[in-house]
Write a structure and sequence with these properties.
The chain is of the alpha/beta class. The protein is built from four helices and eight strands, in the order ββαββαβαβαββ.
């Protein structure tokens, strides 16, 4: 019986966004220090300054000539960057699209039931897509479907604004309603 072959363990190297300390290989850099003019210095001198302050020399702009570097606490810098990105991501709002389907012969009770759902969706800040689905020969009642959607939009006028008037696309007549900003 053969032993299953194993792949050798290879430590994955993390790709660093910035070159730091001894990884900066150019002879001269432009050193940026807060409260002072940027100055061109030898990399070894900048490294000595960073060690003196017990901080890291970080290459900020590698494509500049000479590359721009800054003395800072690199781990703290990365942490702050991640935190800022997380805050930006949290502030982004995701648009949720809710759909409500009617038939061309929807009666008042069903209409009111679906209207209540639509009100809740708009209050929650969701975008609303209401459509009348015409099945088979019911396509001859296009005008009923349009009246139904217009009545629907009129009932929701206090909570939302119409983005798109009733429009027939194949077997569906669609209307789009956006929630009003608070």
């Amino acid at each position: 019986m053969r032993k299953p072959s194993r792949k050798p363990f290879v430590k994955r190297q993390e790709e660093e966004i910035h070159r730091i300390n001894s990884r900066i290989l150019v002879p001269e850099i432009r050193l940026v220090i807060e409260g002072q003019e940027p100055q061109v210095v030898k990399t070894s001198d900048a490294m000595a300054m960073a060690e003196e302050q017990e901080l890291d020399l970080v290459e900020i702009s590698p494509n500049a000539s000479p590359p721009v570097c800054k003395i800072m606490d690199y781990k703290k810098f990365l942490y702050n960057q991640k935190r800022k990105q997380k805050e930006l991501k949290a502030k982004q709002s995701k648009v949720v699209l809710k759909e409500i389907r009617f038939g061309p012969n929807t009666d008042d009770h069903d209409f009111n039931f679906k209207l209540a759902h639509a009100r809740k969706f708009l209050e929650d800040g969701s975008k609303l897509k209401a459509y009348v689905f015409f099945r088979g020969r019911t396509i001859v009642f296009k005008d009923r479907g349009e009246l139904l959607l217009l009545k629907f939009a009129q009932e929701l006028a206090d909570l939302g604004t119409i983005e798109q008037m009733p429009k027939l696309e194949g077997k569906r007549m669609i209307i789009m309603v956006n929630p009003k900003k608070k």
